[in-house]
Amino acid sequence: MNANASVHAARLAHALAQMLGEEAVVSAPEVLSAYAIDGVAPAVAAFPRTVDQVSDLLAFAHAEGLAVIPWGGGTQKALGNPPRRADILLSLAHLNQVLEHEPADLTATAQAGITLEALQMHLAHAGQWLPLDPPLASRATIGGLLAANASGPQRLGYGTLRDLVIGLQVVGDDGVIFKSGAKVVKNAAGYDLPKLFIGSLGTLGIIVEVTFKLLPLPKARCTLIASFRTLAQASDAVRQVLASALTPIALEILDSNAARAVGLPGEGWTLCARFAGIPPATERQTREMERVAKSAGALTLSTMQNGAEAGLWSQIADLPATLPSADGAWFRAKIGVLPTRLPEAAEAVEQIAQAHALQTSLWLRAGTGLAYAVLQDGEPDGPGLMRLGLALAALRKRADALGGTMTVEEAPVALKVRDAVWGPPRSDFRVMQAIKRNFDPKGILNPGRFVGAL
Question: Percentage helix, strand, coil, to 5, in the chain?
Fold first, then answer.
């Protein structure tokens, strides 16, 4: 840190300590390095304890033109472009309480800094849960998951966060607190705030409180695991399932590398089909799923129930955090296409990886049209990065040709150039710019990290 940066950090730390208390401000560079995003570390980190303190901090940052980086559990920090600047890292770690839980109404309100695991433990006492299974649930906070619109394998059966949120409390760039949805105090006229803020990566405001609709915990869960020689056979089984009366809550197709990463044999392609509900129904659906898998040419079949299968699905949900496991440069991409075109997307990944001599790990969220791919080169830099860059560009071109989209969820900073992360801005980008100007005219919230460097 140079002299000017040191003076800037010292002044910020002093001002924030007067506002929040000395114990709520960190300015030691060795600590701040843990909060760096793509190599950009904040000048200070602040840990407010109340919504009013979050409001005061943002009002101060707005007046001074300071860049604020919201922080939850850090599980999604690799997503997005490198920040243009980072003055204050705003952690919501202390806003971590369940504020209200109405079991009879199947609703709960929680602060944004609570982890998903802690919220689930609280809800489980009433036999309820939030049907969400993103990566690293023990660390991921509710606010961070909302900002990234993160989800997991069970989105097939239960939808995404946009389907589960019924109310938000948000602190705007200027410190103004507003609400939308359940128990409305003040609305921002003309906007469906949950739709705007979920997935906006903290660039429009800081989510501090959320109200969810809940579901009863299933009485039983059962998973059928089927291995197939080819992707076409596994995809045929999925096609039959989606055309039938079966109602899986998750259908995941794993290539050999992804399957081995979650403790499965990794023979060819592995289909994991998960069912939940009352025991007779899950048993019946699992038997019918066995019949479908056999008709599609399954090589092996096995079943897992309750505790054992919960462990498997936790590992599947965590795949973005556990792959790759070897050295070298790599990137992880999420490709979204029509569910019927998912096999084509997978084939494109394999072809491009082979053409550029890259290793591949691939898993498909069958039924939802999402493919996740890790492409890896054995060399950490130089020629390895060049090959990865060429593969990234080729893969985006193929995704576009399939009528889909591609987001690079994690990559070396050297690959995060131009439109590499989000792709070229779409036709609605001017609308996005207008919304950003309306909610954050000074551009202080997570500057540069979203689509088109918003």
Answer: 40, 25, 35
